[in-house]
Design goal:
about 220 residues; mainly alpha; 6 helices; about 0% strand; rod-shaped
Length: about 220
């Protein structure tokens, strides 16, 4: 009778431990699934934002290229007028330069005499003034932001995968605890609970080291 009472108390303690571990593993599994879903959303959002910024950067670069092409054409026309020293036509083109190109052009123009006919014929020191448009600068900044968002998406996907991996381990823990309730041998039952407990501790430490996403 005393042995039966002792075995009964041990069985009840084992049932209590198993129930607590089952509840903890269930909650942890739900949490890991929730976090995996959130990180998946962060990944998708980051990819979408990165794609949008790349598209906008391409549009801005196209605008900058169009401006550069127009400036080049205007400059070549101005240079042609300068080769004939046609002041009126030169002034006509200068007034139609973009503000950005006009500033660079003024600095460049001050390097030469008023009459450029000799320089144009010789081809010395006559080069296209270069200007960096605001669209180009903005496009570069957007591409940098897109790269950062892409890296964030990659990291989010990796974090989500780790949470998914933890749910697999938690499912194994739930399985071990589940079959421990139907095993008749006390030794085997204790072994299953110990193995499940070890896996639970390792998984808990692993999950606690992962970043947490929020809505």
């Amino acid at each position: 009778m005393p042995d039966e009472g002792l075995q009964g108390r041990r069985a009840r303690r084992m049932d209590t431990v198993s129930a607590i571990m089952l509840a903890a593993a269930g909650v942890a599994s739900a949490w890991a699934t929730y976090q995996a879903t959130l990180w998946g959303g962060v990944q998708a959002s980051s990819y979408a934002s990165a794609s949008a910024k790349v598209t906008e950067a391409a549009r801005l670069e196209l605008q900058a290229g169009q401006k550069t092409g127009m400036e080049t054409a205007m400059y070549m026309a101005w240079l042609s007028a300068a080769a004939r020293n046609d002041r009126e036509l030169m002034t006509f083109y200068e007034r139609r330069f973009t503000p950005e190109f006009g500033k660079v052009f003024d600095v460049w123009r001050n390097q030469f005499p008023a009459d450029l006919r000799g320089h144009v014929r010789e081809g010395s020191n006559i080069s296209l003034p270069r200007t960096e448009h605001s669209e180009s600068l903005e496009a570069k900044a957007m591409r940098d932001e897109a790269t950062a968002l892409f890296n964030r998406a990659e990291q989010s996907g990796s974090t989500g995968d780790r949470y998914v991996a933890s749910t697999v381990t938690l499912s194994l823990i739930l399985f071990l605890l589940g079959i421990s309730t139907i095993v008749r041998s006390e030794g085997q039952r204790r072994l299953l609970v110990i193995v499940a407990g070890g896996l639970s501790l390792a998984t808990l430490v692993f999950v606690l080291t992962l970043p947490v996403a929020s809505l």
